[in-house]
Amino acid sequence: MGQINIEVTHLNFSYEKQNPILQDISFTADGQASIGVVGANGAGKSTLLKLLVGLYFPDSGSIRIGDVPLQKETLAQIRKIAGYVFQDSESQLFMPNVYEDVAFAPQNYGLPEEEVAYRTKMALAAVHIGHLAKKPIHKLSGGEKKLAAIATILSMKPDIILMDEPSAALDPQNRRNLIRVLNEFSYLKLIASHDLDFVWDTCDRTILLSEGRIVCDGDTREILSDRKLLETHGLELPLSLYRK
Ligand SMILES: Nc1ncnc2c1ncn2[C@@H]1O[C@H](COP(=O)(O)OP(=O)(O)OP(=O)(O)O)[C@@H](O)[C@H]1O
After folding, report:
1. For the ABC transporter domain, which residue ranges apply (predicted)?
2. Is the ipTM here above 0.95?
3. Dist. CA 239 → ligand 1 center (Å)
4. Atom 25, ligand 1: which residue's CA is nearest?
């Protein structure tokens, strides 16, 4: 875990012809990096994450995850390496209770029962929700659903976790809890978010997207404390910096 890297080279993508959404995107990410993907509404953050897990394919350019080039034929392999946590946890949880949801992927892989039980237990423990194992999904709070959705990805034993707006709709306590959990992970993480405070607290590196292009890629603290840069691209300083 944690040694896989991502390489994105000159990627271009459009949903509709004549309307480019991502343009000439190139970056690499190694091992245990924790990368925030930030940008104004419509900048292309979610689209980039979706391309990285093969929900869409680039018009040109390439994506390589570990040794595997992302293409239709390698999709099953890529999905085992890279786990995608949806913005809306509900879309990820569909079994009657938390345990069954987290056990679903390893069961689906045809793993022996003991291995399924072990992975499920470890995934629940990693996000500190072992006590919720038997709880029906509809009785979970928003923050608990988010942690359960992450656990369903961890039980697949991915090398990379991609998260779309993980802090959206979380109250301050759940938000703090999620920050703690993410900072305990040694996975390569890509976190697309509007919540620059959350990115500040969880990501070493930040990629700033504007109108489908990377305008900055570097140290989170440098990029997110540059008021002029952020304002030029439709963002504002993290709130915590205003308080300082
Ligand atoms: N399925 C789709 N079909 C056509 N256009 C789409 C589709 N999904 C997104 N878009 C367009 O692609 C652009 C980038 O959208 P995307 O969701 O990637 O941006 P984002 O940076 O994640 O935005 P937000 O912060 O608002 O979630 C937007 O102009 C959006 O309208």
Report:
1. 6-236
2. yes
3. 25
4. 41
